[in-house]
Write a structure and sequence with these properties.
about 90 residues; mainly alpha; about 65% helix; two-stranded antiparallel ribbon; 2 strands
Length: about 90
């Protein structure tokens, strides 16, 4: 079956579900998909971070305000989360 390469638009004899005419075009297609995936996941990561997730600097500041170390602060947060999880059961 004759198909058009989705990268270079050249017609080629396709075997199976082939979308590209040459290894170079396959490489370019993978690069394109990789960029799209990275861009999409970067945007998702940005959206998550804007939802009020605390940052390292904020956590350090909160720990200092309480007069404890960052590690102690995170342990305290974890214990509180575990208490809430067990309350919901």
């Amino acid at each position: 079956m004759i198909k058009k390469c989705i990268i270079c638009q050249k017609p080629f004899e396709a075997k199976g579900k082939a979308k590209c005419c040459s290894p170079a075009c396959v490489k370019e297609l993978r690069r394109k998909y990789s960029r799209e995936y990275a861009r999409k996941n970067y945007e998702v990561k940005l959206k998550k971070s804007k939802k009020g997730d605390s940052t390292l600097d904020e956590d350090i500041r909160h720990a200092r305000e309480q007069g404890i170390t960052y590690g102690e602060y995170k342990a305290k947060q974890y214990l509180e989360e575990m208490k809430n999880v067990h309350k919901g059961m």
